[in-house]
Amino acid sequence: MAHPLDRPIWNALTSARQASLAVGAGGALRLAPGYGVFVASVDQSPESLAAVAALEQPEGLLATVEAERTPVPPGLTVLKEAVLTQMVLVDLAPAKARDIAVEPLTEADAPAMLALATLTEPGPFFDKTHRLGDFFGVKQDGRLLAMAGERLKPDGFTEVSGVCAHPDARGRGYAGALMRAVIERILARGETAFLHSYADNAGAIALYHSLGFAIRAQMQMRMLTQGDQAKGDLAKPAEGA
Question: Which of 53, 141, 134, 69 is nearest to 101 (CA)?
C-alpha cells in the first residue's frame, strides 16, 4: 500500500484541510495562484497529464514532488529537476536552553515575510503562501529576521516549510527554535510533522536530524514551464534552514 507522503501534493490537495485551496479539472490539481505552484494529477494517464498542461500558470511555472519520476506533460518543458530528501519526525528532541524570543506571525507581517522569503529563497513563496498554516518568527526592533511555518497538509501530516533567516542573522539558532515552535503546534493537533530538503544540503539535513527527524524517502522534484523563462524558482533552502 502506498504511503500518503509518496504523493504529498495530491494527498494535500485532496485532503479535508486543503481541498478548498485546490484548483483544476480533468484529474489535475494545483494550489490556487498566490498560494504556491505545486501540482499533481490523479494518475499518469495521457488525459491526466494533458489536464496538468492545461492548468493556468500565472507564476510562470508548476512544480511536482513525487516518489517516482513521472512523464512530462505534453506541451511543458522541464526547467529544473532535483532529488529531495523527505524526512518525518520520529521524536522531537529536547529543547536547548537558548534566549530566543519566538512569536506568532500574523497577516500584518505578510509583506515582511514575502520580502524575507524573496531575499533568502527557502522555496516557492508567494503573496498568500503564509496563509497555508501557522508561521512563527524572530524579530529585532520590529524587523523580521527569521521565520518558519507550515505548507502541505495531507490528512494526518503537516509539512514544515518556509524556514529561513536573514543573512545577517544566521548562526544564532533561529531555524531550530522556530521549527520547534511549528512542530509543537503540529504535534498538539495530533499530526505528524514532515519536511523536504535538497538531498545535497548536508547542513540542513543535519539540523533536521538533531531535531528528531529521520529520512523516509528520496523524492523527485521537477519544475515545469510553458515558456523559456519562469517568474519564480524552487531555490535551495537558506543556509542552516
Answer: 141
Q: How far apart are CA 206 and CA 208, in angstroms?
A: 5
pLDDT digits (tens, 9 = 90+) for 135-154: 999 999 999 999 999 999 99
Instruction: Please state, in angstroms and rounded to a whole number, the distance separating the CA atoms of residues 43 and 200.
Output: 29
Q: Which helix (H) or strand (E) holds 80?
A: strand 77-89
Domain housing 13: 4-83
On whether the CB atoms of residues 108 and 114 are closer than 8 A, the answer is: no
Q: Is the dihedral of CA 112, 97, 152, 161 positive or negative?
A: positive
Question: Which domain-ending residue is among 38, 64, 83?
Answer: 83
How far is it, in rounded angstroms, from Cα 2 to Cα 15?
16
Q: What is the CATH number of the domain that holds 10?
A: 3.40.630.30
Residue 240 has pLDDT above 60, yes or no: no
Q: How many CB atoms lie within 10 A of CB 165?
A: 26
Of 68, 180, 78, 164, give the one whose Cα is nearest residue 125. 164
Q: What is the pLDDT of residue 96?
A: 82
Beta-ladder partners of 159: 194
The span from the CA of 36 to the CA of 34, in Å, is 6
49-102 pLDDT, tens digit per residue, is 999 999 999 999 999 999 999 999 999 999 999 999 999 999 999 988 788 999
pLDDT interval class at 239 (50, 70, 90): very low
Q: How many domains does the chain have?
A: 2
